[in-house]
Amino acid sequence: MVEAEELNNETPEGGQQIPEEARWYVVHSYSGYENKVKKNLEHRIESMDMKSKIFQVIVPTEEEIELKDGQRRVVERRVFPGYVLVQMIMDEQSWYVVRNTPNVTGFVGMGNKPTPLPDEEVKRILRRLESEEPKIKVDFKVGQKVRIVEGAFAEFTGLVQELYPDKGRAQVMVSFFNRETPVDVDFLQLEKV
Q1: Contact present, 54 and 4 (Cβ < 8 Å)
Q2: SS3 66
Q3: Is the dihedral of CA 33, 35, 38, 40 positive or negative?
Q4: Strand ordering across the sheet containing 180-186
Q5: Using CA atoms, how far apart are residues 30 and 148, in angstroms rounded to an integer?
Q6: What mean pLDDT comes out for the span 138-167?
Q7: How many angstroms separate the CA atoms of 176 and 142, rounded?
């Protein structure tokens, strides 16, 4: 995940103060190559002595809890697949360095003119990346038929009544003694029917 100071104009890891005219740009890359673009671009910044014009390269990611085969796994997901954020002072030389980095297909903008991200958009992205709690990826939907696979109600089937993704739980309506009864269960105790 990205630290708060990484998306504003404060000092990056190298300790260098970032000039006011530096802006954030969105670079399009081949999907799945975002980290490779980041690494290649950072190498080019170093080898082509562009530290005074290109300051930070970020692949925005967030953690997500995935429920798969009865297991919880924390996975890192790209927030914007196929895109990399670059903080830089745009001129002919810096444009050339970024644009000619392997696996970069271009800048986001109108025609050949890269468009900087508005400050409000940078702040919105920052807030999204700052969330400390991983999001839970839920495969179930309200009204879906499910089977409870463990616990006191194992082997009962029912319909999902409500989802509580922040708690990792669901309320399932099961028929118990010919009566619909709400049962609160962990997502790991459910499977689709």
Answers
A1: no
A2: strand
A3: negative
A4: 180-186, 169-175, 157-164, 145-148, 190-192
A5: 41
A6: 88
A7: 20
Mean pLDDT of 157-163: 93
Q: What letter does residue 59 receive in the DSSP assignment?
A: -
Cα separation of 65 and 135, whole Å?
A: 6
User: What pLDDT digit, counting tens, does each position of 101-152 carry?
Assistant: 999 999 998 877 899 999 899 888 877 777 666 777 777 889 999 998 888 8
Distance separating alpha carbons of residues 96 and 118, to the nearest angstrom: 22
d(CA 187, CA 176): 20
Answer yes or no: are the C-beta atoms of 103 and 30 closer than 8 Å.
yes
Report how far residue 65's alpha carbon sits from residue 137's, in angstroms, rounded to the nearest whole number. 6
- In DSSP terms, 173 is beta-bridged to 159, 182
Question: What's the chain's Rg over C-alpha atoms?
Answer: 23
pLDDT confidence band for 10 (50 / 70 / 90): low
Q: Could you give phi then psi for residue 58, rounded to 5 degrees?
A: -130, 135
User: Confidence class of residue 14 from pLDDT cuts 50, 70 and 90?
Assistant: low
